[in-house]
UniProtKB/TrEMBL annotation:
Its main location: endoplasmic reticulum. The keyword Oxidoreductase does not apply. Residues 601-613 have a biased composition (Basic and acidic residues). One of its GO terms (biological process) is SRP-dependent cotranslational protein targeting to membrane. PANTHER family: SEC63 DOMAIN-CONTAINING (PTHR24075), TRANSLOCATION PROTEIN SEC63 HOMOLOG (PTHR24075:SF0). CDD domains: DnaJ. It is found in: Endoplasmic reticulum membrane. Residues 523-541 have a biased composition (Basic residues). InterPro entries: C2_domain_sf, DnaJ_domain, Ig_E-set, J_dom_sf, Sec63-dom. Residues 104-165 form the J domain. Residues 585-597, 626-636, 764-778 have a biased composition (Acidic residues). It is a multi-pass membrane protein. This is J domain-containing protein.
Length: 778
């Protein structure tokens, strides 16, 4: 059999096909990833908080936007150049001529296909006279003429031509290599071989080795494995960590060490600036001689984290850059710390981390997001609020953001009357961003006919449904503003009427004094018996003193500078007046308390009536009815239940539903939750599930083994927010455990063959026993 032959592309036509194919394979996905998309323009003038921290974060984003636009332009230019090059190559390939020609002996001899043998021989003689080498013809042309003549006259040659397309029979197989011939030429062959050696034997192994060496240092969450080991060591050393201790361990992470992280920058100025910041902080523990935690880079990280939580201004921009980097890393490191803690809690160890350590680690998340210590008031999460505002709010027993959101609009505005209307709108906007959850629980055993019956040793599934609402309902606030405008107009008329009456009384008193004669003595005042009637007569009526502050509306919302004023209207809260004497306080305290209780009851009745009317309207199809929409949504969910389950399996849900107001945090943060279950009596940890995809409603499954003892068991379900402080919920869960079911006895039914065989055996045994008895009788 002939040998195969390899031929390189001397002209370069086939090489263009390879280039175009390879170029298209790379260009199509590259276009998908590099397709320029302009950054989304956010209209901050219409919405968003305008506090100083948010404005600085937006300014930094605006500084990045010009570079983003430049990147989009560069990507677009690169893609245009690549596509132009691709189109030129494709056009070049389309213009290439096909050089392959099928062997045709009739064409070589110059005769028709219908010619007979005599005409073929005649034509061959004529061509031989002119193309024979002895007569000055071309040998190659004459050989082609001879082959064509044989292919048409010789039977064997004709058969070869019919089968193989060649009169000489099968030739050697030829493989074309789509590479130019100069690659294997003597002039360039060694250089090409050296390039192959450099790329495939040096650069590629070194690149893969460096990538592998760097990747094995990190876990799946991009945290150094040395840091994970450090967390495990200190958790075993101190199972019951307090918050300061956890921050100290987080600051000892190797992500802040320059030897293991090249992004860390060490400066000579740190030796002068860090001690200045340390003097303003307490409980740093810098004098503790503990391995890793006493190193300079660890003390620096701890100092910057404490300064961030204390909201201290740093002396230089370099420290601000370092602090932003460390705070960004702190959330990832806290997640890793929590993961190691949960692993150690599942292991049978003598020094297992405690529940307090778990809860303290969960408190670190909102602390880092809001830049607050647990001892600080969570009202500092709201913009534009200072210590003087907190003192006023505390006087009226408003200690949390939830308390502030529950107040009536007029009460809330009167308590925050030291801030401007724009600042007050920022407070309202942030309150509407904050969450309020409703939690529903259901215990079941999946895979059983009776799902609601829990038995010993079964796998229990606790279905937790989280429904999110805004902390402050803006629609309800609009209604309160409209009611306040009406009440304000009525009160203004009442004030004008009372003022006119007072003016008339003053005029009458003045006229009486003018009628007194000059020689008449001034009437003596009666002696004071109790002192109170005269004081009360001198004072204005309580209705005039305690006039309510009109509720600010969108049109009449101005900067009201009022502090420590008494308010006794049903929609206001009255503080204690420290300027009154003891007698006034003792006499008026009862009436004031009664007024406050009555006003509180009236408010509760008003809110309950409003809620009942809304419910009735929804029930009977009133203007506030939304049951039809809810019913349609429920039907859609039931119809598409199976499809959505498939989509959840194939596609991951987004985790950026609700943006968090965090002016001190350097990056963007979205609202996440942690749900964990504890035994109520022993506070034993059961399970924990993170929830990062809560939009409006989310159902979580907490699976755990049922207790080994029957009876009623009480659990406590905790839901903690990782973005806002003191936005935690707890729900009691009761579960009744029944004894384990006995497995049903399996009955095996005999087949017909087995039944016949058994009858034969029984009959043979009966005959054998009868025969033995007869023999004994003989």
């Amino acid at each position: 059999m002939p040998r195969a032959q390899f031929e390189y592309d001397e002209i370069g036509n086939t090489f263009y096909y390879v280039i175009v194919s390879f170029f298209a394979v790379l260009l199509l996905p590259l276009t998908h990833f590099l397709w320029p998309s302009l950054p989304k323009r956010i209209e901050y003038l219409k919405r968003g908080c305008r506090c100083e921290g948010d404005l600085q974060k937006r300014y930094k984003k605006e500084q990045i936007k010009p570079w983003e636009k430049a990147k989009c332009v560069i990507k677009g230019i690169i893609l245009i150049i690549l596509w132009i090059l691709f189109l030129l190559l494709a056009y070049k390939v389309s213009q290439l001529e096909q050089q392959y020609e099928e062997y045709d002996p009739y064409k070589i001899l110059g005769i028709d296909i219908d010619s007979d043998v005599t005409e073929i021989k005649k034509k061959y003689r004529e061509l031989s006279k002119t193309h024979h080498p002895d007569k000055g013809g071309d040998p190659v042309t004459f050989d082609a003429i001879v082959k064509a003549y044989k292919a048409l006259t010789d039977e064997e040659s004709r058969e070869n031509w019919r089968l193989y397309g060649n009169p000489d029979g099968p030739k050697a197989t030829t493989f074309g290599i789509a590479l130019p011939k100069w690659i294997v030429s003597e002039q360039y062959g060694n250089w090409v071989l050296a390039l192959y050696t450099l790329v495939f034997m040096i650069v590629l192994p070194v690149g893969v080795g460096m990538w592998w060496y760097n990747s094995i240092k990190y876990s799946a969450d991009k945290v150094l494995l040395e840091t994970s080991r450090l967390y495990g060591h200190f958790l075993q050393k101190t199972p019951n960590m307090q918050i300061n201790r956890i921050i100290m361990v987080l600051a000892g992470s190797f992500e802040f060490c320059k030897k293991l992280n090249t992004e860390i920058v060490e400066r000579e100025s740190d030796d002068k600036e860090i001690p200045i910041v340390m003097r303003e902080l307490k409980n740093l523990g810098e004098k503790r001689k503990e391995q890793i935690l006493s190193l300079p880079w660890s003390i620096k990280a701890r100092t910057l984290l404490h300064a961030y939580l204390t909201r201290i201004t740093l002396p230089s921009e370099h420290l601000m850059t370092d602090q932003n980097y460390m705070v960004n890393k702190s959330l990832i490191l806290t997640e890793e710390f929590l993961r190691i803690l949960l692993q150690l809690m599942q292991w049978p160890m003598q020094r297992t981390p405690t529940i307090d350590c778990l809860e303290n680690s969960l408190r670190i998340f909102p602390m880092m997001v809001q830049a607050l210590w647990p001892r600080n008031s969570n009202l500092l999460q709201l913009p534009h609020l200072a210590e003087r505002n907190l003192a006023i709010l505390k006087r009226y027993r408003v200690n949390t953001c939830q308390d502030l959101a529950k107040l009536n609009e007029s009460k809330r505005r009167s308590l925050l009357n030291t801030i401007t209307s724009d600042q007050y709108e920022d407070v309202i906007y942030v309150l509407s961003m904050m969450p309020r959850l409703e939690i529903e629980t259901k215990v079941e055993v999946q895979g059983e006919d009776d799902k609601e019956t829990v038995t010993i040793g079964s796998v229990v599934t606790l279905k937790v449904t989280l429904t999110r609402f805004p902390l402050l309902d803006l629609e309800k606030r609009k209604e309160e503003i409209a009611e306040g405008i009406k009440k304000g107009a009525a009160l203004q008329l009442q004030q004008e009427w009372e003022k006119s009456i007072d003016d008339n009384r003053d005029e009458e008193d003045g006229q009486k004094q003018n009628k007194r004669k000059v020689w008449e003595k001034q009437p003596k005042k009666k002696p004071k018996k109790g002192g109170k009637p005269t004081q009360k007569s001198k004072k204005a009526p309580p209705q005039k003193q305690n006039m309510p502050i009109n509720e600010p509306s969108e049109e009449t919302n101005t900067n009201v500078e009022k502090t420590d004023k008494e308010i006794t209207d049903n929609n206001q809260i009255k503080p204690i007046d420290k300027k009154q004497n003891n007698s006034d306080q003792s006499d008026d305290s009862g009436s004031e308390s009664d007024d406050e209780t009555v006003s509180g009851k009236n408010e509760e009745n008003e809110t309950s009536d409003r809620e009942s009317t809304e419910q009735q309207g929804g029930k009977y199809g009133g203007p506030s009815s939304s049951d039809d929409d809810d019913w349609n949504e429920m039907n859609d969910e039931l119809d598409d239940d199976f499809v959505t389950k498939k989509e959840v399996l194939l596609e991951s849900e987004p985790t950026n539903y609700h943006e968090v107001h965090c002016p001190y945090y350097p990056g963007d943060k979205y609202e996440w939750w942690y749900v964990y279950l504890l035994e109520r009596k022993t506070r034993k940890f059961v399970t924990l599930v993170p929830c990062k995809t809560l939009d409006k409603e989310k159902t979580l499954d907490l699976r755990f083994a049922a207790p080994s003892q029957k009876g009623n068991h009480l659990y406590t379900l905790h839901v903690r927010c990782d973005s806002y402080m003191d936005f935690d919920y707890s729900v009691d869960v009761k579960m009744e455990v029944h004894p384990a079911r006995e497995p049903p006895q399996v009955k095996y039914h005999d087949t017909e063959d087995e039944a016949d065989l058994q009858e034969k055996l029984d009959s043979s045994e009966g005959e054998y026993t009868e025969g033995s008895d007869s023999e004994q009788e003989k």
